[in-house]
Write a structure and sequence with these properties.
Helices cover 28% and strands 40% of the residues. It is of the alpha+beta class. It is globular.
């Protein structure tokens, strides 16, 4: 990650923006959160179409063989590790 990108992430997080992803990109924010242990609040649309709100601590971001960006995170709501498709995250806030 480039230095100016880290500065943009830090500035967005310290400014308290609900979607820091707008300043530095969603994948960049998720990778930063995974590296630093930052807790995020997400709204996620499940496969059946229902939406759930979850506090998570991201751990890993990767591109699946099917071409979907995925996120492995500790779900603080369920107390378990879960895998989320990034394309199903509708909102994201820093906790």
């Amino acid at each position: 990650m480039r230095r100016h990108t880290r500065r943009a992430i830090r500035a967005a997080l310290t400014a308290g923006q609900a979607l820091a992803a707008a300043a530095c990109g969603l994948l960049g924010l998720l990778r930063y959160a995974a590296k630093t242990g930052l807790t995020l609040l997400i709204s996620y649309v499940k496969e059946d179409g229902t939406e759930s709100n979850r506090p998570i601590t991201p751990e890993k971001v990767w591109l699946s063989k099917a071409g979907d960006w995925c996120l492995r995170a500790a779900c603080l709501l369920r107390g378990e590790h879960r895998t989320f498709r990034i394309g199903r995250i509708t909102t994201l806030e820093t906790a």
